[in-house]
Design goal:
Layout (H helix, E strand, L loop, with lengths): L13 H14 L33 H19 L3 H26 L8 H13 L16
Helix pairs in contact: 1-2
Length: 145
């Protein structure tokens, strides 16, 4: 049996999930996996971020993934309830997207107009598993006037 605790049941709806997440925090365990909460993510799970990653094909993966994504959605949603928070979140997302696309261009020498969103997402995910250094071309190119 894995780390997931069958006693924690999602009752449906963001409010019930938010209450379950808060109760898990008060009890000192991670909502997503049931493991203990720590002070820093390097030590293990912290409130709002699960460090446990079951194997994708394991029986507990589906349930863990649902709970981890529910937790992320609820906590992000709580921060963006007002218009100002919503705008701020989108500004942060745009900065992150700009950085991701720039990194992709630097690594792949590809053009965004020649790439699908799926290709970008797959490359980005692969970088989380096996980061690579960008290819650097030190050759001097002739400038055409």
């Amino acid at each position: 049996m894995g780390r997931l605790n069958d006693e924690l049941v999602i009752n449906g709806g963001n409010m019930a999930i938010a209450e379950d997440i808060e109760n898990a925090r008060k009890e000192g365990h991670c909502y997503a996996c049931g493991g203990p909460l720590h002070g820093q993510i390097e030590e293990g799970c912290v409130h709002g971020e699960c460090s446990y990653r079951p194997h994708e094909h394991s029986p507990e993966y589906g349930r863990w993934f649902k709970r981890a994504t529910d937790m992320a959605k609820v906590l992000t949603f709580n921060d963006t309830l007002n218009e100002e928070g919503h705008k701020k979140r989108h500004e942060e997302l745009h900065k992150c997207l700009d950085e991701l696309v720039a990194d992709w261009i630097e690594h792949t020498k590809g053009l965004p107009s020649k790439c699908s969103v799926l290709e970008l997402m797959l490359w980005s995910h692969e970088q989380t598993l096996n980061p690579t250094e960008p290819e650097v071309d030190f050759r001097i190119r002739e400038r055409k006037l």
